[in-house]
Amino acid sequence: MANTTFEAGSATLFRPGTSDAEIEASAMKAIRRRNTLVRFWQIAILVFVIGMWELSSNMNWIDPFFYSSPSGVLARLYEWATEGTTEGSLWYNLWVTMEEALIGFFAGSITGVFVGIGLGRNRFLSDIFSVYIKAINSIPRVVLAPIFIMIMGLGLPSKVALAFIMVFFVVFANAFQGVREADRNMIANARILGASDWQVTRTVVIPSAMSWIFASLHVSFGFAIIGAIVGEFVGARFGIGQLISIAKGTFDAAGMFAAILLVMVVTLVAEYIMTLIENRLAKWRPQQHLDTQ
């Protein structure tokens, strides 16, 4: 059927008789057009910022000693990758930080989910422990780094402990709130049908809280990285945080930016992997498209 749609401003209007297939095809075309436009502007902004940084450094609009330049940062990364750093191989230092962050992330996430769901389902226990959780959560987590290092030493355990505590409270708070926000009507219907407390938790409460939990996991890995790097700042022999600390001490701006760039890339890759896992585990959730206008 020809000429079944026409544009009115920024919206697509459909005439009577338009088939569902044509409507869907038009909607998908609008989504692809919007995604292309978004990607274009993302790349354009990145190119502009990097280009202005490079130009400003080359023209001495900013002091290259303090701000370095994109070419200097890439040169330092290449040097580290091919020749190593003052503290050994770049990849070994990266692995040390990733090991600390990953162990802290998984331990903090799993514990946070179980404790959040457990206290969310038991109001009596949540009332008892709420004051202690609030008191501990009020402490800035990064200030615990010296305490952990004093107790556990400069090795892996102190960094894992800090990464764990950074992740735990984020995941716990979301899991707890997700349980509290579960649909009470669905819970009541499940109980009417004879479901036990465990069955209600497994089939109603946990699926309802999954969106909250995954929302916390998206940001938690970044917090785990922060915990590991802050711990390395305070005291460590290897790790990306140690490389940043050494670069700071030698006024190596390119080295500091290179280490930060490396951490940023790793965190974005982890975020992408988390999104893939979420999409695979939450297929039941309706696909949400952004407004195409």
TrEMBL record:
GO terms for cellular component: plasma membrane. It is found in: Cell membrane. Its main location: membrane. It is a multi-pass membrane protein. Keywords: Cell membrane, Membrane, Transmembrane, Transmembrane helix, Transport. InterPro entries: MetI-like (IPR000515), MetI-like_sf (IPR035906). One of its GO terms (biological process) is transmembrane transport. The keyword Transmembrane applies. Residues 94-274 form the ABC transmembrane type-1 domain. The keyword Cell inner membrane does not apply. The chain crosses the membrane at residues 37-55, 101-119, 131-154, 160-179, 212-234, 254-277. SUPFAM superfamilies: MetI-like. Belongs to the binding-protein-dependent transport system permease family. This is ABC transporter permease.
